[in-house]
Amino acid sequence: MRVYGLSSSVTSRGAGPGSASRDNRVPRRRGHPDRRYEETPPLHSPRKRRNRDGSVRVRLFGERSRRSQGLGGRERLVSGGDTTLLALENVKRTYSQGGQSVHAVRGITGTIGAGEVVCYLGPNGAGKTTLIKMISTLLTPTAGRILFQGLDVTKHHQHVRSRMSLVLGGDRGFYMRASAVDNLLFFAELQGVQRSQRENRIADALDMVGLSGRRKDRVEQFSRGMRQRLHIARAVVCDPELILLDEPSIGIDAEGARQLRALVRTLSAAGTGVLLTTHYMQEAEELADRVAIVDQGLIAVEGSVHDIASAAGLSGVASFRTPAISADLEASLRRVAGVVEVLTTQTYGGWNVDVAWSRTEPHSAFATELGLEPLGLRQPTLEESYLAFLAKNRQPAREQDTDA
Prior knowledge:
Blueprint: H1 8-12, E1 47-50, E2 56-59, H2 63-69, E3 76-79, E4 84-97, E5 100-113, E6 117-121, H3 128-135, E7 143-148, E8 151-152, H4 157-163, E9 164-167, H5 180-190, H6 195-209, H7 224-237, E10 242-246, H8 254-269, E11 273-277, H9 281-287, E12 290-295, E13 298-303, H10 305-311, E14 316-322, H11 327-334, E15 339-347, E16 350-357, H12 365-369, E17 373-378, H13 382-403
Parallel strand pairs: 6-11, 6-12, 9-10, 10-11
Antiparallel strand pairs: 1-2, 2-3, 4-5, 4-7, 7-8, 12-13, 14-16, 14-17, 15-16
């Protein structure tokens, strides 16, 4: 886990989180013992303020943080005026492997606005994590520009890192023998959070992720899902204007995933831009304002869930029921004119078969011949559209290889 604000002098001594140092603890500083962190009320809803020009600004943190800051949390423009936070201009990243050039990102262009949730989907190795690392200044683009609030991220590291947070997740990234509160105090100082704001910001962040009751516990006692939530708390302590979430749901149980989705909605409502990468299609479908499919280092398609379905050539999904499934049955379905994709799911006492169609009214005469019981017709989900689009997008390449 990379953390913004960690100086090279600290990491060179091997004193960073997860190091093998015997004294792997955060030094106690005067003025912030654990006893000062008492039970606190829930986070208040984001406060909105309308400007004379009709634009709207909001604050993320609640009453505790506003009292400690005096002037309140950093305000965000969420409507009216130019709300663009991030602009990607033909961004590329190439590296050498085994004497050959590997094009991880081939030229991505896009934007993210204040309060907007954009989800990047794609198979492993598509270039999503590489792109996020370039946005967060952990990697430098080979070509193209990344602009955050109009500034080139390669030339304004301090500005970017003070207003942007990155969550790569994983078990590492914390002082395991220190408490959750002490870890967040340490990182809040590294991220430049003012001393008068730290305690209340941390209390709010722990409330957000549901870890207030475990604030005094050592991180080594946390499950993987709890550590992932603590990563997210660390990311929001600095009140970021843009947060990058790379596979945040990995290792989190159903309740934790629900809390994560609620947190993303809270951040979005407060004007924080969110760039999310995930393999959980339901999560993307529920949260994203826009979805982009990244494949082979390029954005192949971007838009709403309906736009993705249209790009995949889907108009509907016919559902069927069958007592048994076989490779021959699936092959027979795929040969039917208008069938784009076939998905099978085993259920109690049989199988559900979902057939994605490119026609408005698919022919169902084959259902009786194949022993399928029709269940109905519905709109395609994001997962079905995603799989159908990838299959369609790669078909010309397979045909070209076959011809060659």
